[in-house]
Amino acid sequence: MHNDKRRLIKHALLLGAISLLPFSLIGEAQAAETVKVGIIHSLTGTMAISEASVVDAEKLAIEEINASGGVMGKTIEPIVEDGASDWPTFAEKARKLLENDHVAVTFGAFTSASRKAVLPVFERNKGLLYYPTFYEGLEKSPAIIYTGAEASQQTLAAVSWLMANKGKSVYLVGSDYIWPRTTNKLARASVTKQGGSIVGEDYLPLGAIEFSSVINKIKAAKPDIVLSTIVGGSNVAFYKQLKAAGIDSSNQTLMGLAITEEEVTGIGAENLVGFLTCMSYFQSLKNPVNEKFVQAFKARYGQQRVVGDPMAAAYTAVYLWKKAVEKAGSFDVPNVIAASSELTLDAPEGEIKVHKDNHHLWKRARIGTLNAQGQVDVIYESAPIEPNPFPKL
Question: Is the pTM value of this prediction over 0.85?
């Protein structure tokens, strides 16, 4: 009798093991058919005006790649996290993506403060981040591919053009964090080197909405040029208050280094007409890759939507990662980074190339005038500029 019981127990256990086996194999097969990637941007808070749309661009690229067979036969599974315009939250979410979700790559961060917050997390975990935003430079990390412009490709190119075409006295105004302060330090040195002068410099807290004091200072200083590094929701208040104070493009040259077509939709084109911006990409660029990108984005998210520089750089980043993975024949970070060296891609902004040493891209600087339709009329375009994140001034 005891032997019969033992036989029954063994039989039941064997049946249980057999019944579970297919499900475990299915689970493994499903896991083998997908590759997890992280997306981390601010979907809430003051930076959501600029960052939420970047997620849309990254998702569009992922959907397109999945529809065409994925990456090395694997479907991309995006895990989206909200950095909430808070730098410690970015670091916390980066840790989750790397340590819990074990993503193969992450596309994200936006402000330099958020990038600085996540950088040690990626370096410590030997992860890989594609960073899409134009920024101040002065950085090189083995864990980051920078698909946005660094200072020599935006700020310094813009200052040189302004000094040659718009005057010599400059008023600097920005949000109070890393990118504006470092950018303006570089701008100050470049203006001085080219015989210009800084007649004022002010910073306001991130998210500030009261600009009357600064605007009064600008009016009193009468600069040839206002160079703005105000970011996020603060731009809505700044440009509306400028207009209310009687400052517009008819009486003041102003360049906004953080104004793309996406910000214009929040600020209102009527508050920006005639002001200048400097980016590597504008929606109005005429080339087949960009026209396809713009059409696909509008078809996916609505004809009223627009695209701007960080969105295009984020979209490009996903395709750049795909090409590097396929060149490497591997999702392993060291192999992908090695395969990225001097990798080229036809992007919405034109052909780009990854620098062999510093993980930045060769990019053009383009200067344009904001028009009444919320788009940009390009008035200057440089040749491709070799990335130099540590410029000597």
Answer: yes
Name 39's Cβ contacts closer than 8 Å, sequence gap at least 6: 55, 58, 59, 78, 79, 80, 81, 106, 107, 108
Residues 316 and 275 in one domain: no
Are 240 and 316 members of one domain? no
**Amino acid at site 109:** A
Structure-block tokens of residue 115: 């990038």
> Could you tell me the two tokens for 246?
């009687």
Same domain (yes/no): 126, 174: no
Residue 224: pLDDT above 70?
yes
User: What is the residue type of 254?
Assistant: L
Crossing angle of helices 178-193 and 155-165, rounded to 10°:
40
The confidence band for 118, taking pLDDT boundaries of 50, 70 and 90, is: very high
Q: What letter would DSSP give residue 389?
A: S
- CATH code (residue 140): 3.40.50.2300
If DSSP codes are grouped into helix, strand and coil, which group holds residue 72?
coil
Coil, strand or helix at 91 = helix
pLDDT at 3 > cutoff 80: no
Pull the structure tokens for residue 36.
């997890």
CA-wise closest residue to 238 among 266, 278, 210, 276: 210
What's 385's DSSP letter?
A: B
At residue 66's C-alpha, the angle toward residues 320 and 96, to 5°, is 70
- Biggest CA–CA distance in the chain, Å, is 103
Say how far residue 265 (Cα) sits from the centre of its chain: 18
| 29 — pLDDT class (breaks 50, 70, 90) | very low
* Structure tokens that stand for 40 in this block: 């981390």
Q: What range defines the domain where residue 304 resides?
A: 34-147+286-362
The string of pLDDT tens digits covering residues 346-373 is: 999 999 999 999 999 999 999 999 999 9
Continuous H helices in the chain = 2-33, 48-67, 87-95, 112-124, 155-165, 178-193, 212-221, 234-244, 261-267, 288-301, 309-328, 333-340
pLDDT in tens, 151-178: 999 999 999 999 999 999 999 999 999 9
Name the β-bridge partners of 225. Answer: 170, 253
In the DSSP assignment, the letter for residue 383 is: P
